[in-house]
Amino acid sequence: MHIAVCDDNIADRKQMERLLERASDRRIHTTGVFYIDSFGNVEAVMHAPMLYNAFFIDMTSGPVNGFQLAGKLIDAGVTAPIVLCVSTINYRAIIEAAMEQLPPDGVENTNHEILFRKLKTQIRYLNKPVRVAELDEMLDFCIAQKSQVIPTIELRGEKDTLYVYEDEILYAEKDGNYAHVTLTEDRQIDVLSTMHNLYAQVADYDHFFPISEQVFVNVSYIEKLSLLKLSMKDGRAFTVSPFELSLVKKAIETYRSET
């Protein structure tokens, strides 16, 4: 398991490294070796965050604190557990306040529901000074999560690369030499890929369905299907071929029967 430690207090950072190295030695014949990289600033840990299966973070003295760094990691597509080590900043209180501000709409796949799920499932807390027994419990959690992590989809544009969950993609459509992908939270990206190659990349996911050679949609975001017309929840509409109509209806019915 690859672990990133990010702490702007060098003494605390070195102590966490030592504790994790000792934990690795104890677990070498059970859960395997821990490979540990240590960082003292945000820029360094954000260079290649997808490499890591767990993060132990406490940033207190710079312009970005630990909670804000956790947000940056999640926005970058990180799905691994993020352990906030509580010292001078009460991360529990910050996140509890943030979650209270999310409207309890309870609707699957809304932006609020996705954020709520990420905060609820990814972020954990560890008090400083770190106790060995509590660290071991946290490592057990991280190892368990590693085997259950929901895979993300890589969307590579000319300047940026996004790693997103299946339910963050609404639809994709051909746009010249690009595949134009529309995401939740009013985000969009032009992917350096043909539609055929992009759909091949996501075909194993449950909710994507091609309605033509130029468009595929996430069936969970379909608002309405009428005669030869499919309307998405964001207001976008697509023409559906008569030959594809029955298949689209079946895909919608299958999705609704499973939810």
What report would you give on this structure?
There is one protein chain. The chain has helices at residues 10-27, 42-45, 66-75, 91-100, 111-122, 132-146, 195-202, 242-258; strands at 2-7, 35-39, 54-58, 82-86, 123-127, 153-156, 161-164, 169-175, 178-183, 188-191, 208-210, 215-218, 222-226, 229-232, 237-239. Strand 13 (222-226) and strand 14 (229-232) form a beta hairpin. The protein has 259 residues and is of the alpha/beta class. The protein has a five-stranded parallel beta sheet with strand order 2-1-3-4-5, with helices on both faces. Strands 10-9-8-12-11 form a five-stranded antiparallel beta sheet, with helices on one face. The protein is elongated. The chain starts with a strand and ends with a helix. The mean pLDDT is 87.
Structural class: alpha/beta
Give the amount of beta strand, in percent: 25-35%
Would you tell me the overall average pLDDT?
A: 87
- Measured between the Cα atoms of the first and last residue, the distance is 34 Å
Order of strands, widest sheet? 2-1-3-4-5
Rounded to the nearest angstrom, the radius of gyration is 21 Å
Major pleated sheet:
5 strands, parallel
The quaternary structure here is single chain
Task: Based on Cα principal axes, name the global outline.
Answer: elongated
Helix content, binned percent: 25-40%
- Taken in chain order, the helices and strands follow as EHEHEHEHHEHEEEEEHEEEEEH
Q: Tell me the number of helical segments per DSSP (H or I, 4 or more residues long).
A: 8
Low-confidence stretches: none
Number of strands: 15
